[in-house]
Amino acid sequence: MAGFDKRVYSYEEAMDGIESGMTVIAGGFGLCGIPENLIAEIKRRGVKDLTIWSNNCGVDGFGLGLLLEDKQISRIHASYVGENALFEKQMLNDEIEVILTPQGTLAEKMRAGGAGIPAFYTATGYGTPIGEGKEVREFNGRHCILEESVVGDFAIVKGWKADRYGNVVYRDTAQNFNPMAATAGKITVVEVEEIVEPGELKPDQIHTPGIYVDRLIQGTFEKRIEKRTVREG
């Protein structure tokens, strides 16, 4: 069974093969469930002209925000861009192309790409700038626009636990976009907090089957809190 062992033992090995101009799909929502160490390795490598698909672009100095510092991202498809001052500056100065995408549509683009579905119709965005220039059809009296799916050169994903065969479990809300992203990469790299022995994960616990995973690495995580709210008094 050694051929099914997905483990790698360095982040350099985990992101081997990434090059400038590639498309990267990143799991996570805000700072919850982001593949923070894989992102840091992309920054270390200094690759440029990346197209990123992610719910958002991290915050200043952390998460995908790290890749903005040296202008490694040229284009991003995201549903939310409001927590990053550098991102805002680059967008307003036309230094980065931002394609705003409804959150559900973004998730479905990843899921459909992973399922081998080239495109799908959705009512979301019809009659708005999102739908401009896209094919329109009517289903049951409702207008829908055609959205293409996405497959990335790399998908980078954060899990909670996995076995060495790449079967992955996510924890609570850190699941978010990660399962969809994991299916949609030509090379899918997953970093987890713990790698357990085969058989410790029950089949009905597994969120991402190992068939989707190419590389698996165990890491340590900072897990920053994006916004801390406490009660007064």
From TrEMBL:
Keywords: Transferase. It comes from Halomonas lysinitropha. The keyword Transferase applies. Signal peptide: none annotated. It holds the Pfam family CoA_trans. This is Putative succinyl-CoA:3-ketoacid coenzyme A transferase subunit A. InterPro entries: 3-oxoacid_CoA-transf_A, CoA_trans_fam_I, NagB/RpiA_transferase-like. Its EC number is 2.8.3.5. GO terms for molecular function: succinyl-CoA:3-oxo-acid CoA-transferase activity. The gene is scoA.
